[in-house]
Amino acid sequence: MFNAAWLRHSEFRAGALDALGAAPGLAAWGLMTGVAMMNSGLSTFEALLMGVTTTPEPQLAQQAYLAGNCGVTWVS
């Protein structure tokens, strides 16, 4: 589980700083997939749930099925 001591560890801080470089790209990707999910007919709750439970590639693959009213399928 979460341990506050990890935040003070030098390797954790170094990894967090390295990850900050990818943060703008990840934010743009998340925004783009969120807009695609909302435009395919998902509710805000469904789009958020799909955003936190799957990786972005299956999310985009699923959009064609959802837009065509094919129902939910397993894409992985």
Walk me through this protein's architecture.
With 76 residues, the chain is an all-alpha fold. Helix content is 71%, strand content 0%. The protein is built from 5 helices and no strands. The protein has helices spanning 5-8, 10-20, 23-39, 44-53, 56-67. Helix 3 (23-39) crosses helix 4 (44-53) and helix 3 (23-39) runs parallel beside helix 5. The longest helix has 17 residues, at 23-39. The chain is elongated and about 50 Å long. The model has no long low-confidence stretch (mean pLDDT 78).
Main attributes?
76 residues
In short:
With 76 residues, this protein is mainly α. The chain has helices at residues 5-8, 10-20, 23-39, 44-53, 56-67. The chain has five helices and no strands.
Instruction: Summarize the amount of helix as a percent range.
Output: over 70%
Beta content = under 5%
N-C termini distance: 27 Å
Largest sheet: none
For the CA atoms, what is the radius of gyration?
16 Å
Task: Give the overall form.
Answer: elongated
- The oligomeric state is single chain
Secondary structure class reads mainly alpha
- The number of distinct β-strands equals 0
> Which runs of at least 5 residues are low in confidence (pLDDT < 50)?
none
H/I helix tally: 5
* H and E string: HHHHH
Average pLDDT level: 78
